[in-house]
Design a protein that fits this description.
Layout: H1 2-25, H2 32-55, H3 61-93
Helix pairs in contact: 1-2, 1-3
Length: about 90
């Protein structure tokens, strides 16, 4: 069960970290629709495959993995907010 929880955190980091990377790349690519669709399919494939592996024959592992995914999302969001606050402070000083 601990492996399912930690694996969920890892999957959440990959899913939402990949989303963050995709959004940052959108302004640089020629076909942003292709990037968004490709990223979504890749991230969903990794997430669903990871959940299948973490299930490990017991459906009791899925709620723990989902909780881990939410914690992974929280970690990515807090990292982005911290970066934004740092850049806001730099703008105010400059």
């Amino acid at each position: 069960m601990v492996i399912a929880f930690l694996g969920g955190i890892f999957l959440g980091g990959i899913f939402f970290g990949g989303l963050l990377l995709t959004v940052r790349l959108l302004v640089r690519v020629r076909y942003p629709t292709v990037l968004m669709l490709g990223s979504l399919l890749l991230r969903l494939g990794i997430l669903l495959g990871g959940l299948y592996l973490l299930k490990d024959g017991s459906y009791l592992n899925l709620p723990l993995a989902l909780l881990g995914i939410l914690i992974g999302r929280f970690l990515i969001v807090s990292k982005v907010k911290g970066q934004q606050q740092g850049s806001d402070e730099m703008r105010q000083e400059g």
